[in-house]
User: Which sequence fits this backbone?
């Protein structure tokens, strides 16, 4: 018997955490914090693990909504064994330390005990790492069940992995966040070359009409041309990015286009943890499925955004600013800068990825010059004076690619996760229309699904 329970991340882009009980062997997939919530509300529902077997935690990649609750889980269940890829382990060391200062600023709850730097150091040392396609065994003293695990490059960010579990002549594949198409640095996901019995798949772009998404190279050309237009008019461009993944891809695009003289050479401002993550991309460029292997991100000329004495210096001469967070969440650097940028008529804010509808980033992405927008309940309405333009440079698969994934892996049972209700509805209906004999489940948080 296989029991599946979503502790978070079902019907949402949130605190991804999924529990599997495979004949008494307990495996937790992911352990993320909800990026739009704070304190205890941001964590998966760990209490559901009480009185259930718990043996392993497998982490697909190091984004906040897949990783950052891990110290809280280990504090509650210190016996758990953690396994991920070596690249995710390296990034996790940076991001979990960085999260401590963010949590201290955001959270003031008596019952929410923030983990310490020493605890992060101990946790990182305890992580066992396995390379792509290196098989590993999962077993337990309390169960006779043995499971073989294997990581497959998911093409999403550095170290991201799909997770294949083999047991009792059955195969379960968890996509994590997956991108089947190439980006500028990462070459796209690799899939198991075998039939899958149970598929757990993300659905992030299930509600997005792919006809509005250009081919990557065409979108890069539109992106470069739009940057040039702003720069040549004397303006500066703010590009909100996630420090992990999106920063590296966009920085590579900008630099490669500058080298081709398709973007005018101007100062590029970055800073913070993203620059440290750049070095992990550089170190691993021969070890992952990577394009532009000779491109060293740390060698690209960059100015430190955090060394500016006055933000107005960014408008003295045209420049490009890459600032996190990607969704322009309140209290982040991109949020602070966006509030200034909105008043600059010659400048522009360019979005380059998914925006949760509840975020300030979504309000900006859906605005145009002359609109009046209110970023948060605490802000007054602001007239948009800068240019706003949106680009689809996604690290997730298009919905048709997810359907093709179903066709390739040919699972009998499919569980839909990591997407809003509209995305899951489209995916579920489309799968059943194309593959009417398959069983499709829309996971719900805190409810179990039983497989024979």
Assistant:
């Amino acid at each position: 018997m296989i029991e599946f329970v979503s502790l978070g991340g079902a019907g949402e882009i949130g605190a991804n955490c999924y529990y599997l009980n495979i004949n008494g062997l307990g495996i937790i997939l992911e352990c993320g914090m909800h990026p739009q919530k704070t304190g205890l509300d941001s964590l998966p529902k760990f209490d559901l693990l009480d009185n259930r077997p718990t043996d392993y935690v497998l982490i697909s990649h190091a984004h906040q909504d897949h990783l950052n609750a891990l110290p809280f889980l280990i504090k509650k269940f210190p016996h758990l064994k953690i396994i991920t890829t070596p690249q995710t382990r390296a990034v996790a060391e940076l991001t979990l330390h960085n999260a401590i200062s963010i949590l201290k600023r955001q959270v003031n709850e008596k019952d929410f005990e923030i983990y310490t730097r020493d605890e992060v150091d101990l946790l990182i040392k305890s992580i066992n790492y396995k390379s792509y396609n290196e098989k590993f065994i999962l077993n337990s003293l309390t169960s006779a069940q043995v499971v073989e695990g294997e990581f497959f490059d998911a093409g999403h960010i550095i170290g991201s992995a799909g997770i294949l579990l083999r047991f009792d002549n059955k195969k379960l594949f968890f996509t994590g966040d997956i991108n089947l198409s190439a980006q500028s640095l990462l070459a796209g996901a690799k899939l198991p070359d075998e039939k899958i019995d149970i598929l757990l798949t993300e659905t992030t772009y299930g509600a997005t009409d792919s006809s509005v998404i250009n081919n990557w190279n065409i979108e890069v050309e539109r992106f470069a041309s739009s940057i040039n237009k702003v720069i040549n008019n004397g303006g500066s461009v703010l590009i909100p990015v996630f420090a992990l993944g999106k920063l590296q891809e966009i920085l590579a695009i900008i630099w490669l286009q500058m080298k081709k003289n398709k973007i005018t050479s101007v100062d590029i401002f970055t800073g913070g943890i993203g620059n440290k993550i750049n070095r992990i991309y550089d170190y691993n460029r021969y070890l992952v499925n990577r394009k532009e292997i000779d491109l060293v991100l740390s060698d690209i000329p960059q100015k430190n955004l955090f060394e500016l004495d006055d933000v107005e210096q960014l408008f003295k001469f045209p420049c490009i600013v890459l600032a996190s967070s990607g969704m322009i969440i309140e209290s982040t650097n991109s949020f602070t800068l966006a509030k200034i940028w909105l008043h600059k008529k010659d400048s522009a804010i360019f979005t380059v990825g998914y925006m949760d509808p509840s975020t300030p980033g979504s309000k900006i992405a859906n605005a145009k010059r002359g609109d009046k927008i209110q970023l948060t309940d605490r802000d007054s309405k602001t007239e948009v004076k800068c240019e706003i333009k949106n680009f689809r440079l996604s690290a997730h698969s298009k919905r048709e690619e997810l359907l093709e994934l179903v066709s390739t892996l040919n699972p009998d049972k499919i569980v839909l996760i990591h997407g809003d209700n509209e995305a899951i509805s489209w995916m579920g209906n489309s799968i059943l229309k194309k593959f009417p004999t398959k069983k499709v489940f829309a996971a719900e948080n805190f409810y179990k699904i039983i497989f024979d």
The mean pLDDT is 95. The radius of gyration is 22 Å. The chain has two domains: 2-208+395-451, 214-390. DSSP finds eleven helices and 22 strands in the chain.
